[in-house]
Amino acid sequence: MKTIGLIGGMSWESTVTYYKIINEVVKQQLGGFHSAKCILYSVDFQEIEECQVRGEWEKSGEFLSEAALSLQKAGADYIVICTNTMHKVIGLIQQKISIPILHIAEATADVLVKQGIKKIALLGTKYTMQQDFYKSKLIEAGLEVMIPEANDIELINFTIYQELCLGIQSPKSKKEFLRIIETLAISGAEGVILGCTEIGLLVTQEETEVPLFDTTIIHATKAAMDAI
Asked: What SS3 class is residue 146?
């Protein structure tokens, strides 16, 4: 079994989900007492979030590069960045290490293509929704990408940083997210990517008929399967 190097803490709530899913998949596939070989480097999200706000992406990339290099030295076979937004600096991180990084958007695109999806909506932080670093991976896979209207982008971003990353799951925010998901489906989306690792803590497939693609589940499952 390969050793998975996890860069977590962004936020730690969603990192818990990664660890749980990875081990569940390994146990399901191998049976017995099998569990995943993982090394976790959990960063201080306060430092990362401050860099995001100031637009200091290179500095945040340096923080994560240090984490990735530590994981490589500790024996990780590949890296999993347990967040969507910080894949913006994946190129900076990859330059510092010789082991591969499992890209969350590429893993998600693979699942969508296999299911025959053509037009997909993307929810996430404002950086993920508005910038090209994430959407470009989906477009390269032949997908048409939709994002919410400006007011809803701000609402989603606020909820992620001011609630979900702080462990708060508000019924009011859940209702708003479900409204946004339904609106995107009415506008032609065949499904919705939960493109922030915290969103799956707020809304689940059981609460809507619109197909949801939770990147935390997809990424963690891919990480586990690649290790076996």
From this structure: strand
